Each structure stands twice: as C-alpha cells, then as structure tokens.
Request: fold
Amino acid sequence: MEAQEKLDTIMHEVIIDNTHHKHVFSNNIESIGIYKKSMKKAIKAIGNHLKERNTPFTGNSISTIKKKIDNIHLEENKKGKSLDYVLDELKDIYLDDCIHFHNPKYIAHLNCPILTPTLVAEAFISSLNSSMDTYDQSTGGTFIELKLVDWTIDKLGYPENADGIFTSGGTQSNMMGLLLARDHYIKKHYAIDPKMDGIPAEASKFRILCSEVSHFSLKKNLSLLGLGQNAVVPVAVDPDFKMNVSALKKVIQQQKDLGNIPIAIVGTAGTTDFGSIDPLAEIASVANENDIWFHVDAAYGGGLLISNLYKEKLDGIELSDSVTIDYHKTFYQPVSSSGFFMRDKSFVDYIKYHSDYLNSKEQEDEGIPNMVKKSIQTTRRFDALKLWFTLRMIGTEGLSSYMEKAIANAQFTADLLRNRDDFEIIHKPEISAVVFRYTPFTGNENSYCEINSYIRKAIFNEGKAIITSTKVYNEVFLKFTLLNPLTTPKDIEEVIDLIVYHGNEYSLKN
Ligand SMILES: Cc1ncc(COP(=O)(O)O)c(C=O)c1O
Reply:
C-alpha cells in the first residue's frame, strides 16, 4: 500500500473529518483569524464583566455556585460548543461570582491586583507556550529569565556567584531551600551522596528552626522531604511577632542536648499573618556560629527589595544561603510567579540531573544554559516574561510605589483602630497586614471569638468587601492584607463601618 493510502486508512479510523483542526493554533491565515476573533470576544467578555460589578464578591452561597457547575454535562455534545456558548456559560458558572482581587475592598489574603503589562505578557506566554526547561524549547526566553534572576540577585545583595530560578510559588521555593539545606548538611557530615543514596538514618534527628508564626509550607515540605513535620521546631516571637533571637539560641542548645541535629534556620521576611520581619542579620550570625543553613522566606516581604523607603527592613537577607521571593505577591504579578535564589551556584549540584533527551552533559560542556538542572519542575512556564514587561513598562519606581501605598494604608488603619475603644490591634504593622479584633463593650469578653468569626463570615456572605480572620494564641482576630494601591482611606473606613455593623448585628441576635 502506498504511504498516503495507509495514512488515509488510519485517519479514517481516528478522525472522521478534520473540522476540528481549525482549533489547532498555527500560522495559517484561518488560525490567526480565529485567534484574533476569539481573543477579542474573550477580552470583551472580561471588560463587560469588570464593568458590571463593583464589589469583590456577589455573596452567593456555596450551594448556589456548586449547583451551576453540577448542572453541566461535559459530554452532552461530543463535537463541542461555540465560543459564544462557552462564554455565556462561563459568565453564569464562574464570572458572575468570581472573587475580584483588584477591588479596593478586597483586603483579605495575600492576593495582589495585577498590572496590565503582565496581561499582555500572558498572551505571549500562553500563545507561544515556550517551556523553560531547556534552551531548545525557549531560546531567548532563557536569557530573559536569567537576566531577571541576575536582577533579583543584585537587589538581594548576593555575591556574583549566586544563582536562581523562577518557580510556581512560595511553597515550591521554600521546598527548594529546605531540600538544599538538608542535602548540604548530609554531604558535609556523612559519607553518602543524598542525591544518589537518599537520607541517612540519623536524618530523623534533623531539626529546622523557624518562628512559631512562620508559613505552614515549611512543615508540609519537610514531610515531603522525608524529615517529617516534627522536624520543625517553633521559636518564640517577641510582641511584634518577630523571631526572638535569645529564644532561638536556647532552642538550638535544647535540641542539641536532646541529641537532635539542627541543620537550618528559616527566617521569615513578612509573616503571612502579621507581615513581621525576623531580625535577619542576627539570625544569620546564629546560623553562622552553628555552621548551619539560613533560608529566608521573603515570599511576602520580597517586594521591599525595590523600595528606597523600605529596603532596609530586609537588611541581613544578603547573608542568607537561600531566599524565597513571590513575585505574585508584592511584585503585582499574576499567579504564578515566584523565585528561588541561592548564594552559591554550586548548590545546584544537589538537584542537578542530566537527561540524554533533554539536557545532556555534552550540551552543558558546550555551555548551553538548560535551566531544568536548577528546577524541581521539568516543563515550566515562561512566567519571567510578566516581570520583564513590568520592569520595561512600569520600572522599579512605579512598581515600588504600589507597595509603599499599601504600607501607608496599613499605617492609616493601625492609627485609626488604635484611637478607638471598640477595637484592639495587637501589633505594629511592619508591612501591610493588620491584625485586630472588634471588642465592643458587651460585659462578656469571652464572646469576642464568636463576634469576630461572625463578622468575617457575614461580610463575605454580603460581598461588599472581603476581609479574613486568623487565630492568635487561640483567639479569633480579623485581618486586613492591604496590597492594592487603589484602596483609599475612605474604603478602609467603610470596611470598618461594615465590621461594626455586623458586630452589632451579632449582639442583637445573641
Ligand atoms: C510567608 C509565606 N511563605 C510562603 C507562602 C506560600 O506561597 P505560595 O502560596 O505562593 O505557594 C506564603 C503564602 O501566603 C507566605 O505568606
């Protein structure tokens, strides 16, 4: 049988007709036309949606939202639907109730509003779909990412021999810090190569010290790394929720006395709840005295690196062995965009792997920069392009002004609450998170947990604003995480009015 005949027979069995091929993105005129028309419709739908709503949420219930999606049958039509149909459906099942992080009254979690240049970058990232694992899948993209890595290294004050990589988020970056810390210790103290042989039996005694208010990803990562969550030893904090260095020294000694082996200290530059920044320089010298790894989780506080007003808050970060920075928090990037940085390129050896099909040793000898050797991912998005567009179009001055505005808003909130008898604020905000609670005179202080839990839920269910809550020493507190430079003092005052309104509503009901 002729080759074409054979192919036709196979194709007949696989696909009856080729009408679906128009959806395969390509450089033919029809495909480019479909792409332009489709994107125009998508952009119009997004624009209309944004115009329609002025609140961060609709307040619709979980059951209402779930039911809309339950009602969709993915295979009711095996041939698929039109874009118009899917967009209409999306409005109902997702857009109408989605949470608007860009709304000035969204002040709950560490979600930032994003910048228009990053959305332009996203179009290039997804339509060209480069993969950053190797040079032969990304070409110039590799050098763009490397330039941003070098830019961040310079801001960190790391030595020239430092290195870094974009990651999916702070959780993954922290995982890399802990992995390097673990393997660095093993390589130095045991006659085994952890990359090849795994971890020694004594690893069950390895301990990582971090403040009691550090991020939960440390525990999660340690269980994934085979050290177990119990390897985390919490260190007490001072009244502003920063690691207490005398307590750290004591805990290290206590752990040694117990026969355990401290292998790393993690300092947090911007704790999730309080935005507090541990005393990094002092922690660095404790790590140095004990000859152990020092990782800084600057997922939140990393944005201060580019602020002339506030970069000193991160003094000491340059003394660390590794750092986590989340660009998708305080660099105003869309999810996902994060970075992991190490002070010495040679640490890459702990994770480096050569695969003949991807990044052979021969390619490395030729000097081809295949980034996969530095990453725990293989296929990886070109997230760096978003930061590239941001720096090229907005610049560091504009970018740092957003965070500076957020910090000013946090200070405004703290001053406002401090001057009221019916609120209690429990810290001096360091960055842009404010933790406080509504404490009206009810004659029953025990009810504060219930009142504040009620307030958070009632505000969410109403949709006009979104705030969050956390527990401090087992008591419920409310939290604002202010990142949006468009949030005004008036917005803040209105959210505080909502808190009082729902607090009083609770008192009337109970
Ligand atoms: C201090 C800190 N570290 C790590 C993380 C985890 O980051 P991601 O959600 O990007 O994985 C967070 C998330 O809020 C955080 O606040």
Notes: The chain has a mean pLDDT of 95. The pocket of pyridoxal-5'-phosphate is lined by residues 110, 169-171, 174, 215, 217, 268, 270, 272, 297, 299-300, 326, 338 (CB under 6 Å).
